[in-house]
Amino acid sequence: MFHLQSRTPHLLPNPAVFADRDTAHPMEQKMAKRLVLFNYPGDVCNTTSIYELGWLMAEKYRVLLVDADPSCNLTSLILRDGFDEYYASENTSRQNLKDATSTAFKLDGWPIKPIECPSVQHAPNLHLLPGHPNLAEWDLYLMLAQDADEKYGSLKSTPGAFNNLIASCESKYNIDFTLINLGPGIGGINQNLFIHSDLFVVPTMPSPGSVKALEPLKYVTARWVRWKRESIETLENAVYPLRPGTPKFGGMLIQRFSYRNGRTTSPHRQNAADIKSVISNDVFPHLLNHDMCFLPDQYPAAIRDDGYCLQEMEDFSALRNKAIEVGIPAFALSDAHAGEIGPLSKDEVRQRDHLRAQLDRINVGLISLFNHV
Q1: CA 142, CA 161: separation in Å to the nearest integer?
Q2: What are phi and psi of 341, to 5 degrees?
């Protein structure tokens, strides 16, 4: 058994908000707050960010990770060597996002019920709603249901199926925060889970391609939200209705920064500046016009004044690969792991502590925004 760093994380400014959740009647409890990281291009470190943010938040709160990426990388990170056995065992093979919602897609008449969500060995407050390699089978059904002008009777309950399962698991485990991992693309699954979130964060890379991807992103997400607004009353009597509310922009993450002599390299600095400019001057006003943002003065000044950037994340891929070997995030590595991966060098200790500080700042910024939901 290992122990996390003996540090007091600066996480949530007002933990008393959730202090009564253990004693409240289930129907009286606050709904869990949901965060989704979404950007339709691939390779923007979605899984890594969800994994690390969820683990850090679970040091003080009950957190559910939802793996909606058919690659199942998040599920693999959590289950590790037990991944294949989980999907082969009769007891757990159907305990996943796809099979647990199949009733809404196959119309077999059985109600959606909460499933067993494995807890993480060294983070008991962290639970996983596993993904499935064939989850994309549901994409066509959702695209038909969410793109149709008329609501097909046989598809009427499919748009609320994922939300119903997630909500039932949130209630079962008394979850405070749910973090949803999406794959790349703009298909029906991503649309569905995006519109059922409270807060969305846009992960980007310091590259020209990331700058160009922002314009279509603002149109796609606004169209998704418009569909929800136009459909929520029509579907309120469905077996699985839509979750109320409009997802709000929580900022962006700029991933995989490279540094030289303590400063970001010149191309990365310029690309990051371009991304922040496009977000501030184009994307944010567009989203605000569609009620997909908070008012500017509701954002922490440090985020608002930095082009709505939550954090520029340094590239610690080598340290993260070491951490994967012992089944924990890189910021939680300690001397206790020396027997498995060798002692950490001074530079690795610096990276570990810097990563924790970056994640702390992200969490503080996000929680301040969750308080406005």
Answers
A1: 10
A2: -125, 5
Looking at residue 189, its amino acid is I
**Number of Cβ within a 10 Å radius of residue 361:** 16
Per residue in 294-309, pLDDT (tens digit) is 999 999 999 999 999 9
For 66-97, give one letter per residue: b (16+ CB within 10 A) or e: bbbbbbbbbbbbbbeeeeeebbeeeebeebbb
Residues of the chain with pLDDT under 50: 1-28, 260-262
**DSSP-based three-state secondary structure for 254:** strand
Q: Position 4: which residue type?
A: L
Per-residue DSSP letter, 330? G
DSSP state of 244: P
Q: Which two tokens stand for residue 277?
A: 């400019």
pTM of the predicted structure, to 2 decimals: 0.88
Q: Can you tell me the distance from the alpha carbon of 274 to that of 25, in angstroms, rounded to the nearest whole number?
A: 49
Residue 128: name the closest of 186, 194, 69 by CA.
69
Beta carbons of 276 and 309 less than 8 angstroms apart: yes
Q: What residues contact residue 335 under an 8 Å CB cut-off, 6+ apart? A: 343, 344
Beta-carbon contacts of residue 263 (< 8 Å; ≥ 6 apart): 269
Nearest in space to 362 (alpha carbons), one of 33, 60, 56: 56
**CA 162 from chain center: how many Å?**
15
365 phi, psi to nearest 5 deg: -65, -45
The token pair at 307 is 């082009």
The DSSP bridge pattern shows strands 119-120 and 199-204 to be unpaired
